[in-house]
Amino acid sequence: MAKKTFEDALQRLEEITRELEEGEVSLESSLKNFDEGIKLAEFCGSKLDEAQKKVDILLKKNDKLKAVPFDYNEQDQ
After folding, report:
1. For 18-43, how does the pLDDT look when each residue is reduced to its tens digit (9 = 90+)?
2. At what angle do helices 6-22 and 27-58 cross, to 10 degrees?
3. How far is residue 31 from each of residues 35, 37, 38, measured CA to CA in Å?
4. d(CA 31, CA 38)
5. N or C, which terminus of the chain has less Cβ within 10 Å?
6. How many structural domains compose the chain?
7. Residue 63 is part of which domain span?
8. Between these two residues, 18 and 61, which has the higher pLDDT value?
């Protein structure tokens, strides 16, 4: 079994969201999808937390953590 990646989990979460929004599946299937979606959201959240910690470590200077917020506007420059 392949290791689950953030991207795979996010894609599956998007599929589940579409299925639930369409409302064309049974209640039982909807509940199963919802449960799977909760687990995937928790997995994605933990991966994002891990990534944030790695960024914080990379920004560490002089034994003091200097967190610099990401500015989306700077991306376009």
Report:
1. 999 998 999 999 999 999 999 999 99
2. 150
3. 6, 10, 11
4. 11
5. N
6. 1
7. 6-75
8. 18
